[in-house]
Amino acid sequence: MSVLTREDLRNQLKKREIAPVYLLFGAETYLRDLAAKTIADFVFGENSLREFNENEFSLNQAENLSYALASAEQMPMIAERRVIRITDVKVSATGGKDTLKEDYEAVLTSYLKRPSETSVMIFIADELDKRRKMAKLLIENSCAVEFAKFKDHELVIWARKEMRELGFDAEEKALHQLVALVGDNLRRLTNEIKKITTAALPDKIVTYNLVESLVTNSREIPNFDLTDQLFGHDKRKPLQTLKKILDDGAEPLMLLGLIAHNLRRTLMAKELMNQGVERTEVIRVMKLHPKYHEDFLASARKSDEKKLLQIIKRVAETDLAIKTSKGGGGNAGSRMQIEMLVCEIVNL
After folding, report:
1. H-helix or E-strand containing 227?
2. What is the CA angle 216-28-68, rounded to 5?
3. pLDDT tens by residue, 239-261
4. Are 134 and 106 in contact (CB under 8 A)?
């Protein structure tokens, strides 16, 4: 079978066409997981004994695939069909992280060739290399749906649609700013939309100023720019970046927490690389986002471990100074503390 898009899946479900086996994969995990729930909702409707006919098995435990297949062969209880979710499915490029191993090929093939007519099996893949044998086996014998990350213009369209379904309108500029601040994380974007629309009552119009006032404080440092620049030779860049972030409205204490978080992760990655751990394993252990892992690893690689430890200590001291209003209270005092910290770091 060919790989379907999320639109193809939506059209099938609208027609009440339910496949016996699904494979849901791709980088957009929010919509992937939502699709799994939606399929189950269509299967059960309102009157089925769902709690007796829905099971979930994680492939992080090797024996669970056999249990899942056996469960799929059981008859449903006072319902037309059962739903079997199989999570943590991984077929990686190198095979080192596989949870769906080739050892399972025979038993899985046997089921996929003749799937139970009274069960719907949903494979939810966290990683799927389409070139690998087990990935091909699933794709060719299931309704496979890929959930690719949205591009910026798609995110704007999606955000507008979500707001309209909630009964709200939004300024075009507000939508673009929301996407610029949140990025392609649909889970977070959904949460921000709920927050913003609640604040937009009673007028039900989301404005640019509303987005700026509510979303800015949860902004992440993109691509670890500020942390990365702390280790560079240009002393002006981190100060310029810091000024921009603070001028955009980020709270100094929140920003300090993000810097500390990035520094600790950088130190951990540095130690792993010093121990000779493979790059792919470092990415897995650190749970790095595919969009940012190259920048992060490059920053960790060029950082100095001794300097990192010094900086982390100074960050902790600055955190205490802000919380105790040492050197001045309020936003102005907090801003001065973090500016002094960055000036000190670049001169180490």
Report:
1. helix 225-229
2. 135
3. 888 887 777 666 677 678 778 87
4. no
Q: Could you identify the residue written with the tokens 């399929």?
A: 39
Provide the pLDDT confidence category of residue 223 given band limits of 50, 70 and 90: very low
CA 228 to chain centre: 22
Domain extent, residue 279, equals: 222-346
CA gap 183, 181 in Å, rounded: 6
Which letter does DSSP use for residue 299 in this model?
H
The span from the CA of 259 to the CA of 266, in Å, is 10
d(CA 215, CA 248): 11
pLDDT tens digits for 80-96? 999 999 999 999 988 88
- For the chain, percent helix, then strand, then coil, each to nearest 5? 60, 10, 30
- Residue keyed to tokens 């992080």: 60
Structure-token pair, residue 293: 């892992």
Question: What is the amino acid identity at position 126?
Answer: D
When pLDDT is averaged across residues 301-308 and rounded to a whole number, the result is 82
Q: 1 lies in a domain? A: no
Are 313 and 226 within one domain? Answer: yes
**Residue where a domain stops, chosen among 125, 146, 167:** 146
Same-domain status, 94 and 183: no
Residue 132 and residue 91 in contact, taking contact as beta carbons nearer than 8 Å: yes
| Closest C-alpha to 105, from 135, 61, 77, 131 | 135
Instruction: Give tens-digit pLDDT for 121-167.
Output: 999 999 999 999 999 999 999 999 999 988 888 999 999 999 999 99
